[in-house]
Design brief:
This protein is of the alpha/beta class and 745 residues long. It is built from 24 helices and 29 strands.
Length: 745
């Protein structure tokens, strides 16, 4: 359990209900015009001292406040986890209000707790060695942060850009207490939660239409909530408890949206690209972003061909006039594609499909794509040219590029001027790629003969300069919406979203590297890496300045990155109150000035090893050995182990002398803690030694305190690590009995 945390709680607005009734009472009784938030920080709001004494004094309105929901029980949990010496209420109420304040706390069933009255709360906190605080005043939270004290700010408002990482916004006291309990390693049992409560079922919000079979697949493991992504208020409400969000192109996943989704772990786009998702904001929040690249390439490519043919054969107008009973055969002048020059901008998945289909029409194909090799051009039968040459020589130009700063308005008025008079433009890529105003002007002037457009800068598109033009074929972004495409995209997104929520590495992540290792094998390795990160943060409870990973042996760089991200995230979850996942672990480390260093030693070992080291006094080290199938923690602080660490453990560092191990066993026996296994070791007789005890039962705080009182026991840690999946990796020939005494090398 982490003994480094010292916590300060505010009183008004944290342990009490919102103090708006205090301002309202002062306004009524004293004829004042105080805002409702005046007593959130009465000193900072310059409320006169006389008014503050009346409000907080005997019989004043503060005596009528109600406690915050479950506040007495939540305070009791904090006291059980931290102890009275590491928890204090620091309030800016006047010192003279102490008797009425203590009477109010006692009357409402709060457990006894030390209270300090001070206007300069941060100065007192620093004197007391406070490391964390819970506040509802932004001014006090900011001052705590400036002093390097992590402060939970109770607020529903999202954080503004650039806010200090030492300010952690949480919706209520319960959320703050959960975070503190997680940091201490204490069990979390919130008031009102019964022992027999069922595990929470995952919640997935779907804000755009997806394939029905994909929806059924999601519903087999999660609650699926369907909402119109254009209705912000309904979407934000649905996202409050959501674990995942699935969108297509209509829902805009902005930083503001993500601020309304505190539990969100996955955003999945059922399609190619992520241009409607703020990838930077998602990564900073630790949210994994998925898409389905290539699943709808055939559909989008064939839709492109359909638009070209619809224009070439005058299909839209011919169909309409024939339905109207007008036989205008002589008016229409369709043309053949054979012999025409068609320029394809972007030869990725969709552009390649278009090229393959167009070759059957005996066209000349020009292509522009600076990221495609000459060999790929040759395979597709496309002549590589620069962009200007393509524009100047093509009868039809079709775009198949993502929306990026580089491609925005790549077809503008200047580019259109280079095109042949009477040329045709097709855009099935992204609306931002073509300047629609310039396109509309060129179509009206006759410089361009026609256009086919499936995408728009803003979708849904209810207005556009292209609307009503007779030489334009428009469709509502249905290029990738064939039945087959929706089924393929839905299958990928449903399967990988559920896998990501289970903690598995998925191949279609946008903001994590692709993995060269099969998913189940990588999961076994990262599970142990996560345990190693957790353990090193237990050994070093104060946040270090460096986190070094040394990779020995032949290990692919992407595997090393996954291992590093998972271990770092696990450690940071104990070193900070920020929400940390492998997605944002490096970002959070950078914000907290924690230097992450990954080194490779490719020739050092035939069996790969990952060494995690942090600085401190003393520095600490955990090593994971991996035989490409199973992995295990095989070294702690330079002491090698015969068996990998797993399960519930007591780890001690002590001086090697007779009697210490026996005394520890006696203490655990008195508290009815059963020892399941033991590993002990030393470097030299009488020097530093380590002991790892696997236990079957929780170790009470009182037992741990007694162990720490034994002379020459320097440190003692209680830690739980997951049991490895499958058969644990064994180094050497460790006994297989449940209780084994093995010598550490």
């Amino acid at each position: 359990m982490d003994r480094s945390i010292r916590l300060a709680l505010d009183l008004d607005g944290v342990l009490t209900e919102h103090p708006a009734p205090l301002a309202q009472a002062a306004n009524r009784a004293l004829g004042m015009q105080l805002p409702d938030h005046a007593f959130v920080d009465s000193h900072g709001c310059n409320v006169p001292e006389a008014v503050r004494l009346w409000v907080y004094g005997p019989g004043g309105p503060a005596t009528l406040l109600d406690p915050a929901p479950n506040a007495p029980k939540l305070l009791q949990q904090l006291l059980q986890a931290l102890g009275n010496e590491r928890l204090v209420i620091i309030t800016a109420r006047p010192q003279r209000s102490q008797p009425t304040t203590e009477e109010w706390l006692q009357r409402h069933g709060f457990p006894p707790c030390r209270i300090v009255f001070a206007d300069d709360k941060v100065a007192i906190a620093r004197e007391l060695g406070v490391t964390h605080a819970i506040e509802d005043s932004l001014r006090h939270a900011t001052r705590y942060a400036e002093a390097g004290i992590t402060c939970f700010l109770l607020t529903q408002d999202p954080a503004p850009p650039g806010e200090s990482p030492f300010i952690v916004r949480v919706p209520d006291l319960s959320a703050a207490v959960q975070a503190i309990l997680r940091l201490t390693g204490a069990p979390i049992a919130l008031p009102g939660s019964g022992d027999g409560a069922q595990p929470r079922r995952r919640r997935i919000v779907v804000s755009d239409v997806i394939d029905q079979r994909a929806r059924e697949r999601l519903a087999s493991e999660a609650d699926v909530i369907e909402v119109d992504g254009r209705d912000k208020s309904a979407l934000y409400e649905a996202l409050r408890e959501a674990d995942a969000l699935i969108v297509r192109s209509e829902t805009q996943v902005t930083r503001e949206l993500l601020a309304h989704a505190p539990r969100l772990r996955v955003v999945a786009r059922a399609g190619t690209g992520v241009d409607n998702i703020d990838l930077q904001a998602a990564t900073e929040a630790g949210i994994l972003v998925l898409n389905a690249p290539g699943a709808n390439a055939v559909s989008a490519g064939e839709h492109t061909i359909a638009l070209i043919l619809a224009i070439a054969r005058n299909l839209i107008d011919a169909n309409a006039t024939t339905h109207a009973g007008r036989w205008e055969r002589k008016r229409f002048r369709p043309f053949d594609l054979k012999g025409k020059t068609i320029g394809i901008v972007g030869l990725g998945r969709v552009g390649s499909v278009v090229a393959q289909r167009l070759r059957a029409f005996e066209c000349r194909l020009l292509g522009y794509d600076p990221y495609i090799t000459r060999e790929r051009f040759a395979q597709l039968g496309v002549e590589p040219v620069d962009y200007e040459t393509l524009l100047e020589n093509s009868d039809i130009v079709t775009f198949h590029v993502p929306a990026t700063p580089e491609t925005r308005h790549m077809l503008d008025a200047q580019a259109i001027a280079r095109m042949k008079r009477g040329a045709i433009v097709i855009n099935c890529a992204r609306g931002e790629v073509v300047d629609v105003q310039a396109l509309a002007e060129a179509l009206k002037s006759g410089h361009l003969a026609a256009a086919g457009v499936d995408v728009f800068p803003e979708e849904p598109a209810y207005q556009s300069p292209l609307f009503g033009l007779p030489n334009v074929v428009l469709t509502p972004h249905i290029g990738g919406s064939s039945r087959e495409a929706l089924e393929a995209v839905g299958e990928i997104i449903a399967t990988t979203t559920l896998a990501a929520l289970r903690g598995e590495i998925v191949p279609n992540a946008v903001n994590l590297p692709a993995a060269s290792l099969h998913a189940p094998e990588l999961r076994r390795l990262t599970q142990v890496a996560e345990a190693a990160g957790h353990l090193i943060a237990v050994l070093q409870p104060a946040r270090p300045t460096t986190f070094q990973v040394t990779v020995h042996g032949q290990v692919a760089s992407d595997i090393a990155e996954h291992v590093t991200a998972v271990a770092l995230a696990a450690a940071l979850r104990r070193w900070t109150v920020r929400r940390v996942t492998p997605v944002n672990a490096r970002f959070v480390a950078q914000e907290l000035h924690l230097f992450v260093d990954v080194r490779f030693d490719t020739g050092a070992s035939t069996v790969p090893e990952f060494n995690f080291e942090v600085d401190g006094d003393p520095p600490h080290h955990v090593m994971v050995r991996w035989d490409h199938r199973e992995a295990g923690i095989m070294e702690v602080d330079r002491f090698s182990l015969e068996r990998p660490l797993a399960g519930h453990m007591l780890i001690t560092h002590h001086r090697d002398r007779p009697g210490i191990i026996g005394r520890i066993g006696t203490i655990l026996g008195r508290y009815e803690v059963n020892i399941a296994g033991m590993q002990v070791g030393r470097r030299v007789r009488g020097g530093e030694a380590i002991m790892v005890l696997n236990v079957d039962d929780p170790i009470p705080e009182a037992a741990l305190n007694e162990i720490l009182q034994i002379p020459d026991v320097w440190t003692a840690y209680v830690v739980s690590l997951p049991e490895p999946e499958g058969h644990p990796m064994v180094a050497g020939s460790a006994p297989s009995s449940a209780v084994a005494h093995t010598r550490l090398r």
